[in-house]
Specification:
With 717 residues, this protein is α/β, with parallel strands linked by helices. The chain is built from 28 helices and 26 strands. The protein starts with a helix and ends with a helix.
Amino acid sequence: MNRFAYRSTGFAIKTLSNLSKANIAIHAQEKIPDESIIFVINHFTRLETFLMPAQIFSLTKVPVWSLADYELFRGAFGSYLERVGAVSTKSPDRDLLIVKTLLTGEANWIIFPEGRMVKNKKIIEKGQFMISWAGGKHPPHTGAGTLALRTEFYRQRLRQLSQTKPAEAQYLMDLFQIESLDPVLNRSTYIVPVNLTYYPIRARENILSKLALRLVDDLPERVVEELMTEGSMLISGVDLDIHFGDPIAVVDYLQNAPIRKDIETSKRIDFDDPIASKSVLRNEALKLMQRYMADIYGMTAVNLDHLFASMLKLMRSKKLDAMDFRRRIFIAAYMLQKQPDLHLHPGLQQDQIHLLTDDSLGKVDEFISIALEKGNLNRNEDGYVKNHASFSSPYEFHRARIDNPIDVIANAAEPLADLQRIIRRISSLPGLLIKKRVAKDLMAQDEKEFESDYHEYYIQQESKPMNVGRPFLVKGKSKKVGILLSHGYMAAPREVEGLARFLGKMGYWVYVPRLKGHGTSPDDLALRSYQDWMRSIDRGYAIISSICRKVVVGGFSTGAGLALDLAARVEEIAGVFAVAAPMTLMDFSSKFAPAVDMWNRIMDRAYKVGPKKEFVENKPENPHINYLRNPISGVREIERLMNDLEPKLPNLKMSVLIIQSRRDPVVDPKGSRKIFERIGTNDKEYILFNFDRHGILLGNGAEKVYNAIGEFVKQIG
């Protein structure tokens, strides 16, 4: 064993990491016991052969040796593998070396129980572990379990013989070249399952594959595939989640009477001698294999690709509606987040509302593009058509990751029983029930979040009654058109209740969400960003779009800005109306908010405490709804929202109505006019009402505004 080789390998990996965009996350390393260990790891790429010994060595500081395919031990690379502790699977002294080093604790071991790279990730067949590869199928190897059992068998035997027959104990010490029994008897043998999950898996030409094809003639197709897949992972960026599982105490599998009898016998047992309990040990090795294989694949870090691929594979319908597909994925993600035994990729632990709105992360669009490219989906004038044959047709093993990546990704999720149960259930539900489920779940989330925030941030004699801030749904007569309606800054859903009821009487469904930080207390609002408000609006859109066929969005003041932003991001929206959108603010607090906000940040960073001004007094037109203190940080967030919105305005292609009060003391009419002029569509209207207040949705004359909005929605519907 060469420790310098480990250090040089670590240096090489660090250098490679600097050149690549790979992101390695290690989980539950605290589970690794300070004992003799065989790490059993799933095998998907060549990278693992040298990556994992160095990674585990960095955690344990104990040399880590591994078994590697004998075909790799050629030339300089073979010499390198030997220096870092890799042993050929065909080495004649392989088993003796493994047992000896595990007994003494001088090295831990890595074994890939599949026996080879499983490029197609197909390891389940009729509910049993079965490895599919280019040469056929075989069950996972029991070698790791067998070697662990043999190690602990001889450890227990040495413990017994040292007390009852020292001469025989010395014989075994000589056989294993053990100088002292203390290190042997003070240890135990464990198997630690390890799962490696890569995300995303994308095989495409890259600088490594192109360079290899130029430099080497007749490069084997298998090597080309590996360079395309693994090179893309490194260069384009991949998340590698390494999960360590609960250690398995091997001694627990040596308690059968026949095994104990062989351990305690005074007869000499050489390393390869047949023993009476051989068949029992074989059964115990099989049990061990089933356990660590279940543990390995049970730790798969579930990601969106797993859900996309599994859902597409299990859906029976030939026609695929993209929005219906996204809703099913959303429900699946929501349900999986409640499964305590599943490991989720960080991206799947977050709110997945983007699936139901603008696909801001590009995940849906990317998956559908791959499905179209690889033939899992076809496109026609009505949308997408699933090619069922693409999931059952045979494909060349070494090209699986290139030719059928979606099937490979779906295969990776097959061992996860909870995931499969959820996907099967959701994939079989009618589309109407899926819509109802989305709307019901999201409204429940809105309600739960409001009640939680209200109780957490409630301030006596300052917070309004709960019915002021509670989100609500107005049921209409027809589901042809629904309306998402947002209140303004420092306000609450009650602010737009009059307009919502008016539109409801016209027959429209209306959902009024609560913007995060509102309807509770100013202290809550001071903690929120405009992205928090956008998520509130996005959730509201997902609700009303799951109820009605067309959606019109609108809002007042800051809510108007949020409505315009949503319409600029979601092209399916049929129309948008904005009342007093705050492109340019008039009041004094808005003008000095940026400077004060920066001052507060400096005080926080430099002194943690200091002379900060976090709120200014607010004298609202509707004190029964609005806050009486205005957080400076909140005004700054309005500015950020509108700055973010302005370049998006040309994207608006639907019908647009802009409404403004001529003598608004808060929002400068020039700002709303600027919004109107920058909007991309020609189907737009600007209405200026002769009011001298900001809150024109309440008070005298509000019905004029209601009528204008009602006529606008009526023309769309």
